């Protein structure tokens, strides 16, 4: 496994399903796209954290979405390291290999992605239960418990991280045949370490996605069906209210307006969660196809026959991850009035301060 991961860039380019020139052109294009999307994702999530901090953490959703923004920032930040992992070994005579970046790029990127997935699943479950049994859920999902839940998710996932350093230690390796030395992964033969890494890898890459994907899918479908049913109920209730408003007077109309406003707010919150989870599910599809291809085709791997196609698709998976991180702030801005006003105030304040300074 380590010998495959230590494959040099020149070997990668010259072998596989794609020709070397086509591979370099496509990889360069995807690399630029990935950097642009990752840069936007980084800025967008910084804005999200600042805005929710200004709004305050009085409700559980603000806490969860802030934690999601922190995790998404981790996804975007580690994407830059992954890009370096592809780019640096392409430099002629560079003493680097792709594998030396495994512990600082792909591994933490995967873990941050799993944290984001678990937080998104948590938010979708919470919102679904809030719609299904609102009176009971509000006493269970408190702000304090949400902070504890977010902390547990981060800690539980990143307990897997030290295993990566044990499995892929980095050091100088001499190649006498070529009279060169490379910074690469030192082969590990310890059975216990290899077994431990395989278990951790299965948890992060197989078991967690198998748990997260169906849970997120069914809660999203449940939310959509509940939202549709709620809309029918509101329409019927509004029709009944219109017929009885003249008999009940102004007080009844005011109460109905307040109830309608509350219902509309809940409806927007549900729609926002549905959009967040839907975008996340779509962003998971490239990763799922990538994993399925590895299972079905043994040559679709680092060092295999289709190694350049493997790396190209893998980079596209990174782009999809960053696109998901970028989409959330757009959803918040479009669906949440409080978030939109706070964001506008944040940027307008910056403009006003700049004008005052220039004056």
Summarize the structure.
With 359 residues, the chain is mainly alpha-helical. Helix content is 80%, strand content 3%. The longest helix has 58 residues, at 191-248.
The poorly predicted ranges are: 1-15
How does the major sheet shape up?
A: 2 strands, antiparallel
Q: Name the structural class.
A: mainly alpha
Distance between the termini: 63 Å
What value does the average pLDDT take? 80
Look up the CATH topology: Rhopdopsin 7-helix transmembrane proteins
Transmembrane segments: 22-53, 65-91, 111-135, 147-168, 206-227, 273-297, 309-333
GO molecular function, one term: G protein-coupled receptor activity
Domain G-protein coupled receptors family 1 profile: 44-332
Organism: Elysia marginata
Notes on the protein architecture:
The chain has 359 residues and is mainly α. The chain is built from twelve helices and two strands. The protein has helices at residues 2-5, 9-14, 20-55, 60-87, 106-132, 134-140, 143-158, 161-167, 191-248, 250-296, 307-335, 337-358, and strands at 170-175, 180-185. β1 and β2 form a beta hairpin. One of its GO terms (molecular function) is G protein-coupled receptor activity. Residues 44-332 form the G-protein coupled receptors family 1 profile domain.
């Amino acid at each position: 496994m380590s010998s495959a991961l230590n494959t040099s860039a020149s070997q990668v380019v010259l072998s596989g399903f794609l020709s070397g020139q086509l591979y370099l052109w496509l990889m360069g294009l995807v690399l630029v796209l990935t950097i642009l999307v990752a840069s936007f994702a980084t800025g967008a999530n910084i804005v999200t954290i600042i805005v929710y901090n200004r709004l305050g953490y009085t409700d559980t959703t603000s806490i969860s979405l802030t934690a999601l923004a922190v995790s998404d920032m981790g996804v975007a930040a580690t994407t830059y390291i992954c890009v370096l992992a592809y780019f640096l070994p392409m430099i002629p005579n560079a003493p680097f290999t792709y594998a030396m970046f495994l512990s600082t790029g792909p591994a933490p990127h995967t873990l941050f992605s799993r944290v984001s997935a678990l937080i998104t699943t948590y938010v979708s479950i919470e919102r679904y239960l809030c719609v299904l049994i609102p009176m009971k859920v509000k006493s269970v999902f408190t702000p304090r418990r949400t902070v504890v839940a977010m902390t547990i998710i981060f800690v539980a996932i990143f307990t897997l991280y030290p295993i990566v350093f044990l499995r892929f230690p980095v050091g100088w390796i001499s190649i006498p045949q070529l009279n060169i030395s490379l910074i690469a992964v030192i082969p590990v033969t310890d059975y216990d370490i290899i077994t431990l890494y395989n278990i951790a890898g299965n948890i992060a890459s197989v078991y967690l996605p198998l748990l997260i994907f169906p849970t997120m899918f069914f809660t999203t479908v449940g939310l959509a069906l509940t939202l549709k049913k709620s809309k029918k109920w509101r329409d019927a209730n509004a029709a009944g209210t219109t017929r009885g408003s003249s008999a009940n007077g102004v007080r009844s109309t005011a109460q109905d307006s307040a109830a309608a406003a509350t219902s509309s707010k809940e409806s927007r919150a549900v729609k926002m969660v549905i959009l967040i989870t839907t975008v996340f599910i779509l962003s998971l599809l490239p990763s799922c196809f990538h994993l399925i291809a590895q299972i079905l085709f043994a040559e679709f791997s680092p060092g295999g026959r289709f190694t350049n196609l493997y790396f190209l698709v893998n980079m596209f998976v990174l782009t999809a991850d960053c696109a998901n991180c970028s989409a959330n702030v757009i959803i918040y801005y479009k669906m949440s009035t409080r978030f939109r006003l706070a964001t506008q105030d944040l940027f307008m304040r910056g403009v006003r301060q700049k004008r005052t300074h220039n004056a």
